[in-house]
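Here is the promised in-class demo. Please do not try to memorize the tokens; focus on the logic of going from shape to residues.
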């Protein structure tokens, strides 16, 4: 499985930002790792037209229907997406979404032929209470469907307290969590769990990417703020290409 440098533009991105993707493509014409930018639904078709691999940031569990304002997985695929994020903590916080809904969205993504980047992560209070691994196991129990495979699914560990804050766990903490996630996935999914990509996300920048990518069981990153500008994301892709 190739490593993955994934961007998440969140509620950012207008047509005026498309040259950032063209610059990124120019820097990485034939990247040695997978590069995906997940962007707002309004921009996906134009993002895909640059030639970059694109993903949605969320999808509805249903393929179509009376759900005003929602976007389905087949719509994302139709717009040119090959990936979709599910389970992002901002969906929990902003829209009170649950593990069961994330599982349904993940199934919907697969049904539309999309590769799912499924996020998990503990809050600061849970981290401080020492509950990180229990929280992550419960989230994985509830949100990863039983038929997940390494080909269809990537897991992204994103501590909520590290998102957009400039804070990160220590390298040892990331390594310990990723080792525990790998053990869980292997126990539950066998060979698929042993090879399912595990991303780290939360304040990844060019300045910390080398240290994070050197860790065992870190197969890439899910990057928010630093994916918006080619000048910031390009060195992160290079760091992942150069990691062992
Ligand atoms: P930041 O890289 O801005 O901390 O965001 C991480 C994230 O939430 C990616 O999904």
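The designed amino acids, position by position:
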């Amino acid at each position: 499985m190739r490593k993955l440098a994934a961007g998440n533009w969140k509620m950012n991105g207008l047509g005026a930002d498309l040259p950032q993707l063209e610059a990124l493509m120019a820097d990485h014409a034939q990247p040695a790792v997978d590069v995906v930018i997940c962007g707002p639904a309004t921009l996906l078709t134009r993002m895909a037209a640059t030639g970059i691999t694109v993903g949605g940031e969320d999808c509805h569990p249903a393929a179509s229907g009376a759900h005003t304002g929602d976007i389905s997985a087949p719509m994302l695929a139709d717009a040119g997406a090959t990936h979709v994020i599910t389970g992002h903590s901002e969906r929990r916080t902003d829209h009170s979404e649950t593990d069961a809904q994330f599982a349904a969205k993940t199934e919907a993504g697969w049904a539309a032929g999309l590769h799912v980047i499924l996020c998990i992560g503990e809050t600061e209070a849970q981290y401080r209470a020492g509950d990180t691994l229990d929280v992550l196991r419960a989230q994985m129990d509830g949100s990863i469907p039983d038929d997940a495979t390494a080909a269809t699914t990537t897991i992204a560990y994103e501590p909520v307290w590290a998102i957009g804050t400039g804070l990160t766990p220590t390298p040892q903490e990331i390594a310990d969590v990723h080792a525990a996630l790998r053990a869980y996935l292997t126990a539950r999914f066998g060979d698929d769990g042993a090879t399912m990509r595990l991303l780290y996300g939360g304040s990844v920048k060019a300045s910390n990417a080398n240290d994070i990518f050197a860790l065992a069981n870190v197969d890439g990153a899910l990057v928010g703020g630093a994916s918006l500008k080619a000048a910031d994301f390009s060195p992160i892709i290079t760091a992942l290409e150069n990691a062992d």
